[in-house]
Amino acid sequence: MALDPQRQPRLAIATLLAVACMPVALAQVDPDWLRSWNEAVDARPKTLNSDARIAPADEPGTPLTIHGRIVDPVGKAAPGVIVQAYHRDAEGFDFGPGDDATTTWRLQGWAVTDADGRFTFRTIRPAPDHLGREGAHVHFTLVSERYGRQWASSIYFSDDPLITAAERNRSAASGEFGWVLDVETRDGFQHVEVSLRLDEKTHF
To answer: What single string gives the DSSP state of each residue in 7-28?
Structure first.
């Protein structure tokens, strides 16, 4: 669903994009991550929708759809929040074969939440780290006019054997905002649903 100019004034969208490009103190952010983030911002599509892609349609891997919603710090739907997401490919690499590129993440996408605070990403199921250091996951960074730039919880998959019991318990304790998600398969596609809550202050 594309942004409705009558419900989301162009000035507000321009402000959001300006927030995404605000300078940050290098001491607050890992410099390698910051370089990748800045490259991602530079390459961001000019038009954002609530339904977007991370991996292209021809990317090898199991099709996955992420159904997300974002609420503000008091639990109300948060429309107009820019969502950037990225993850490893089906071989477990962030930047491509060998992960030897010093550039932004290869599989990434941008969306903006609709009037109900919802967004959708169509992608593939990422693989765990190719060295076996951690389970498969998807990263999210949120940008909003009121709350600035924030890192949201990465999501993991409940059927991944690399997810520890302690991690599953911590996620379960967070209730609807848990990050170890059940995977549902429908018509050959995997689906997960995630709820993210904005903090009151910007993170970086």
So the answer is: TS-HHHHHHHHHHHT----GGG
| Chain CA centroid to CA 95, Å | 16
In contact, 1 and 50? CB cutoff 8 Å: yes
Report how far apart, in Å, the C-alpha atoms of 186 and of each of 41, 45, 189 are. Answer: 33, 30, 5
Structure confidence by residue, pLDDT tens digits, 153-173: 999 999 999 999 999 999 999
13: which 2 tokens? 């969208």
Cβ(119)–Cβ(112) under 8 Å?
yes
Q: Where are the alpha helices (DSSP H) in 21-110?
A: 31-42
Q: In the predicted model, is pLDDT for residue 195 greater than 60? A: yes
Residue type at position 203: H
Residues 193, 68 contacting (CB under 8 angstroms) = yes
Record the tokens describing residue 32, joined without a space.
């390698």
Classify 120 as helix, strand or coil.
strand
Q: Where are the alpha helices (DSSP H) in 51-187?
A: 165-173
Q: For residue range 4-60, what is the model confidence (pLDDT) as tens digits?
A: 333 343 333 333 444 444 434 434 789 989 999 999 999 999 999 999 999 999 999
Beta-strand relationship, 184-186 and 189-197: antiparallel
